[in-house]
Structures
1.
Amino acid sequence: MTAPLPIPWPPAAERRKRWLIGVSGGLDSMALMHLLKEAGFRHVIVCHLDHGLRGRESAADVRFVKRAAEKLGFSVETAKTDLRKQMAESGESLETAGRNARHRLFASIALNKRCKRLFMAHHLDDQAETVLWNLMRGSHGCRGMQEVSEMEMGGIRMEVHRPLLGIRKADLRAWMEERKLKWREDTSNRVNDVTRNRIRNEALPLLAEIAKRDVSPLLARAARSDAALREVMEWALEKAAVLDPQGRLHLGVMRGLPEALRVHAIADFLKSNGVTDISGALLENCVAMLEPMSSASVNLPGGRRLRRRAGRFFIEDG
């Protein structure tokens, strides 16, 4: 028998509360759903979205998830969307549109069920893909996902838990196979028409071949090191008191900080104000605003701007 998976569950008192879990029907989310049952979670609401992309296959996913969840004694909430229509209207990519649609579903169920705690089934291999993709996009540092974080989904703040981040997908598969538990295979995961699939199916195997070793644990370790460094940075920024009473960045204080802390302070300021897609190039432009003769504003994603006025940085809508 395989050894128990080393999963950092919340304390027992937290397990007695109501929780949401996103379940696609695939290996990862089905494993997490069964692991929750085994760990003593009882008040679990399974959330499943039919993206409307795979016809009968998608409909079969819905039936499969409902049967499996109800057999465990969990309640189920399902919805269907027309993702291609959403993409045409918004101009979003397939990945972005799918993620936003799922987030809207989670937010809707969270409000209806008065539960803003959500489990997601991302594992160590997903973490490696995330780190590599963020590096390719020029993000600040080796950013990965966190085991516990707060995220805005559909206009509300959700408490997101990813207890499988330290677990390999192969170990989840072995755990499921040993117990003869079933899951659904999404055939679209094998098609290299979206970025995530190409990273998973092409980039990571190529890097492993070049390095002559499995690179996924190395990328996941880099994410943990980066997260630890960010804790130190946040402690230093708190001591430096970079924000004024109105929550604006104080330029006088900022100019006295080391370069690395300046970058982190601006990145944290943007993130805390709801700015997403923070690239390295964007941060460079924002840091350059600390120079008196530089531009007094920088365009931000979403049509907003970072402005400099009267010795302060602040964000204004476009």
2.
Amino acid sequence: MNQSLKIDPFGFREYDARWVYGKDINSNGITNLGRGLGTQIKKHTKKDNPRVVVGHDFRSYSEEIKSALKKGLVECGCCVEDLGLSLSPMVYFAQFNLESDAVAMVTASHNENGWTGVKMGIKKGLTHAPEEMKELKDITLSQKFSFGKGSEKNIKDFQKIYKDDLINKNKIKKKIKAVVACGNGTAGIFAPEILRGIGCEVIELDCNLDWTFPKYNPNPEDLKMLHEIAKSVKENNADIGFGFDGDGDRVGVIDNHGNEIFSDKIGLLIARNLSKKYKKSKFIVDVKSTGLFSSDKILLANDCKTIYWKTGHSHIKRKVNLEGALAGFEKSGHFFFNEPLGYGYDDGINSAIQICHLIDNSNKKMSEIINEIPITFQTPTMAPFCKDEDKYEVVDQIVKQIQELQKTDFKIDGQIISEITTVNGVRFSFEDGSWGLVRASSNKPSLVIVTESPASDNRKKKIFEFIDNLIQKSGKIGEYDQKI
């Protein structure tokens, strides 16, 4: 590689690509990524000139990156169809609506300013899994490109087509007053208009586009963002508060009293609602999600099955597809609705609409609906810094240590470990339904830690202290992004 080409191999992550622009990758590196992706799309579609839909989020440098990516795609024979400023779900929707062969969305989602990335997919409704990412990495870094003669065109007014599709089939009867927070991310030009369109009274919070993210990152797991929404809900006497991430595929929810409802609990409410109509359904949830799914009386009564799976929008999407599940829910706020409810991909605005339907179909307030499920004490998702080159090794060590402790009947707050799941890091559970999770982040140099207890807030904290003590002993852990 000559000096004018910069592309850090660690940017190829489990199911998308993320780099700090300028530091880890430059525009020549992005063009090579486009060449690699174009070559890969041709291989999988067996077409010389596959049609690829592209879009970009509202960061100052995203359009420049998209231009470099398109250059590489066109050089490899792809016919690029550019939607312009987009949300990730709008690009996914376009693949169905325009019947294209593949998608590439330039976004770093909620990552801090300076980051960039690409979410990619070939099979409709799915994004790259680890196998496809490994293949893309190999093609791109070895520069084994298949060149061709491509083309490029702009698709006009696609935002309207996407918005109308969601509005026209989701009208509600009640006038739901909703705080809509977008953290100055791209969802600001979509979410308020769509929710107004279905019949909500919308109070906008940080919906003007500002790529510097002056107040907080557009991340519905960020406590700062959630606290701002809660404050606005109370001030405006709203029925619900929604927080959308930077590229619009996730949503966070605040009830009418200003209380945060973790997205896994929202998922459980939606699953309960759907299970009455769609009996014997399967639901997929990620390992960060509440333990209540496996013991829920309504889901069990309706003969529904819940499978815990790897965290990550691409993993859950694929599992929903593979299992023919009705829906999938991630604690981070990605919800996936399969046919007949959706196309299987994650759309934060569609998820908010499903929550509006939940309220619309009930005579209760959101706080009353949430009170129908058992109380558990949950931590937010916590991410202590750990280098990309260390994080998987640290997690492997933790898995072994916890497995050894289980053999010795080691107790945490008087409880012995009854079950261990290692499908993604380690999730260890206790007889009373309490559990803890440690895994490596898929898209940042950090670990991910979550704990939950139906018994007490103290037990939740004790499990966290146990995990924190174990990881600190590795000597490879830095600051937490947030902690209890």
3.
Amino acid sequence: MKFIRKIFDTQKSLFQKGGKFEKGYYLFEALEAFLFVPDHVTSKKGVQVKDAIDLKRLMMTVVIAMIPCLLFGIWNVGHQHFLANGSSVSFLEKIIFGSKIVLPVVLVSYTAGGIVEVIFSTIRRHPINEGFLVTGMLIPLIMPPGIPLWQVALATVFAITIAKEVFGGTGMNILNVALTARVFLYFGFPSDISGDVWTYYGNDNQELISGYSGATPLYLGASTVDNVDSNSLAYLLDEYSEAINQTEFYSFQNMFLGPIPGSIGETSTLMCLIGAFILIFTGVGSWRIMLSVFLGAYCMGFLFNLIGSNEFMLIPPEYHFVFGGLAFGAIFMATDPVTAAQTERGKWIYGFMIGLLTVVIRIFNPAYPEGIMLAILFMNVFAPLIDFYIVKANKKRRLKRATV
């Protein structure tokens, strides 16, 4: 590291003001800050903030928290592929196959987003922020394993430009950037991100197990809403489990562990909870938002159990925790410190409404059975309004006490 440090020190003058490569200063600074501790400190004047946590450390903590989901996703992509064509292979072979599919998606996401960040940093002459370290990982984890790489690049460029840079860059965006990339693909290329696309079958036209489908349990469940009498949710999942020779394939335990079709990093609730522990333990993620999302989903699911008119309404409320990406969204998306509510009471309201809306969307919109993505984006818009009224109510209460 001393050798690399020496190279940066000798070349730094070329990128500083008046140097030959002055326009590339912020790119140079970003590389230096990524490898080493920044060499600048706050001014001697004014209040000093004394804390070991900077933006780079905070973002790296979130990335570390997502590693369990990434590693499990790599294995699961390989597992689902070989399950679909009936092959029995080793754990290592599944990892190798999954790596060939997942790692290019991660690389494309970081490359496309990094180029956009550098372009805007050069034009606006501001430092390259570390916020994209998280976004660049989130985008691949919420994508289907077979998504075309050019679509990943296009969605990433769109999301960084429209959802973040248009609003002023890191810390100024209203919508979650990664979810903006997903919603762009959902409405722009629906056939590649919805339906039976959650298992990578390969390009060699291998014969699949008879009856096998790569659809998620939510998608299978939504397809029963209009045909309750002959095809209940429980019946359909049982039949599908038998078709692939795994009678417990869609049991609560199996969906909690995650070896089922789905987005690359969101199928395992267990891996998401490990990430939640890291975020809560380090103080990076809000446990209030996480808990309130689950509470909102449970309460709405329980209410539908009481008034349910079809099988999808009557599923146990706790199944919504392991269906789809609710756990992943609650832990890594809803807790985004920029787009979430900031007040303590506001976090409870914000998270609860996300959980509630997720279940409502799942039940009443069979065309889009997931729900968590639209719920988070919707509440992103209302988060400032929630904080506004919470702060306003606090002011009124304090003024009332002061005049008594």
